[in-house]
Amino acid sequence: MENSTQQVELQIPESSRQISGDDDTINTNQQQQISRRSNKHYGWWFRIFLYIIFLLVGQSAATLLGRFYYDEGGNSKWMATFVQSAGFPILLPLFFLFKSSKNTAFQSRKKPSRSSLFLIYLFFGLMLAGDNLMYSYGLLYLPVSTYSLICASQLAFNCLFSLLLNAQKFTALILNSVVIVTISAALLAVHSESDISTKLSAGKYAIGFVCTVAASATYALYLSLLELTFKRVIKSETFDTILKMQVFPSFIASCACVVGLYASGEIRILTAEMNGFNKGEISYLMTLIWTAVLWQICCIGLLGLIFEVSSLFSNVISTLGLPALPVLAVIFFHDKMDGEKVIALLLAVWGFLSYVYQNYLDDSKAKSSKSEENEVTTITH
């Protein structure tokens, strides 16, 4: 009896250990999967945060330097346009750093032909050159505060093109964001007399306003077409793809600007412009160089957000930096911050917060859906 009792007692722990071992294996596998998903999620958020910093810092600093160039004696529209795309060589070393990070799972997909890629780069390059030229005219004829707030209309245009080209879903909050930001820009157009100085005619102010609005619309179309190209034509998920979509169109845009410099005759006045720059020749060169570098940093952040999320999200983040520019313009360039600009600034912030809250709701809904799917999967297994 004692021996049988001992055998039974020994058998029960053995089976328990076997079941417990299976449970431990399942739990370990689930924990490893959760850990991998968490690491991937944190890595994604880190990239998003980095791209946002690149976009906001690059955009704000480059815009202020562009205004500084005009205020201190610069007058070449084509040179101001050229530096917005000419900094692409600083990105070339990144091709070697990220060459080995290509995901082989996507290399088997059918890639577009070289002729198709050339046409894509040519189209985006010429489009970028024309858009940068309009922005240069706008920055020349408008104060930084007015210029930056008018640029907020880019969000409304991007929403429209995202709806038509990228199948973007609209909600009441997104619509509210679009309407509010549009009203913010329109308010500056109606109350523009306070910004027209004796040195600037009403006609030039109107040209600056129209060029800035047209540039905002063109750039919104540019972003939506980029997103469409990433998803429908290139179909690649590597950082190398982002670099190519920045470097090659920038090279073409720079070539177009060089042609514009010679065709307009502005190439002949650049030496005199540098010699007559109020802060000196070194300051002139450093202004152009750092403007070019900062615009490339901004574009990398912009393209990264398009690649990781959407063109509309990248535009919303870009709009986030616009309300800060009038404040910086008051500090550095002594622009007037009158009542109309304050109201326009508050409306722009309101529109931005409406869109951010909508993204928060979408993210919460997506997380709840994923958790429900994981629970169903766990129960099934």
Automatic annotation (TrEMBL):
<dbReference type="Pfam" id="PF16913">
    <property type="entry name" value="PUNUT"/>
</dbReference>
<feature type="transmembrane region" description="Helical">
    <location>
        <begin position="78"/>
        <end position="98"/>
    </location>
</feature>
<keyword id="KW-0813">Transport</keyword>
<feature type="transmembrane region" description="Helical">
    <location>
        <begin position="172"/>
        <end position="190"/>
    </location>
</feature>
<dbReference type="InterPro" id="IPR030182">
    <property type="entry name" value="PUP_plant"/>
</dbReference>
<protein>
    <recommendedName>
        <fullName>Probable purine permease</fullName>
    </recommendedName>
</protein>
<feature type="region of interest" description="Disordered">
    <location>
        <begin position="12"/>
        <end position="32"/>
    </location>
</feature>
<feature type="transmembrane region" description="Helical">
    <location>
        <begin position="118"/>
        <end position="138"/>
    </location>
</feature>
<feature type="transmembrane region" description="Helical">
    <location>
        <begin position="205"/>
        <end position="226"/>
    </location>
</feature>
<keyword id="KW-0812">Transmembrane</keyword>
<keyword id="KW-0472">Membrane</keyword>
<dbReference type="InterPro" id="IPR037185">
    <property type="entry name" value="EmrE-like"/>
</dbReference>
<feature type="transmembrane region" description="Helical">
    <location>
        <begin position="247"/>
        <end position="264"/>
    </location>
</feature>
<feature type="transmembrane region" description="Helical">
    <location>
        <begin position="44"/>
        <end position="66"/>
    </location>
</feature>
<keyword id="KW-1133">Transmembrane helix</keyword>
<dbReference type="GO" id="GO:0005345">
    <property type="term" value="F:purine nucleobase transmembrane transporter activity"/>
</dbReference>
<feature type="transmembrane region" description="Helical">
    <location>
        <begin position="144"/>
        <end position="165"/>
    </location>
</feature>
<dbReference type="GO" id="GO:0016020">
    <property type="term" value="C:membrane"/>
</dbReference>
<feature type="transmembrane region" description="Helical">
    <location>
        <begin position="312"/>
        <end position="333"/>
    </location>
</feature>
<comment type="similarity">
    <text>Belongs to the purine permeases (TC 2.A.7.14) family.</text>
</comment>
<feature type="transmembrane region" description="Helical">
    <location>
        <begin position="339"/>
        <end position="357"/>
    </location>
</feature>
<dbReference type="GO" id="GO:0015211">
    <property type="term" value="F:purine nucleoside transmembrane transporter activity"/>
</dbReference>
<feature type="transmembrane region" description="Helical">
    <location>
        <begin position="284"/>
        <end position="305"/>
    </location>
</feature>
